[in-house]
Amino acid sequence: MPVNIEESWKQQLxxxxxxxxxAHLTEFIKKEYAEHTCYPKGGAIFxxxxxxxxxxxxxxxxxxxxxxxxxxxxxxxxxxKEGIPHPPSLMNIFKEIETDxxxxxxxxxxxxxxxxxxxxxxxxxxxxxxQQAGSHQNKxxxxxxxxxxxxxxxxxxxxxxxxxxxxAKKKAALIDPSKHHILTSGxxxxxxxxxxxxxxxxxxxxxxxxxxxxxEKSIAW
Length: 221
Known about the structure:
single chain, alpha/beta, Uracil-DNA Glycosylase, subunit E, four-stranded parallel sheet, two-stranded antiparallel ribbon, 6 strands, EC 3.2.2.27, DNA repair
């Protein structure tokens, strides 16, 4: 599996790429992509690590696995390619930004604009078989992405982690709360949002307030 990622991330994660589990994962992914339609495209599997360096990562948002519909996934959690209709969770994210920050609902669901500002949009599982949600879970990706979270926790300070929903909240166990900031809420999916667990969390304004307090530039959500 080609690992074309930004150099500082490569330095942090090189040891992971050498471990036996990653070799098994690579074989599995190669076979899946050869025999089935999988998302995102091969070149975008590690897109989350391409836009911002390890040391410039200010905010981490954790998703579960990529969108499994045609032309949706672009390697960043909750994000879709240009011109693709916004999935329900992304719509609810944008609606919360609208009410929290007074920003108009955007046309583009491509969140590369966030990634360029130091927002790591990390799915716990980086690939999926078409139309089969969760099909690449428990194959090794979670071991890798947990290592990413630990690296940030251990080797950085004052990173803001946004943990949305039960799955993401479990990742708090990997983060040192004495060095970092953790904001939790329900998931932006309609099931959770319509029960009142998402809207009004004000995570976007809270994140920017925290960034300003530590002398960092706000995110243009």
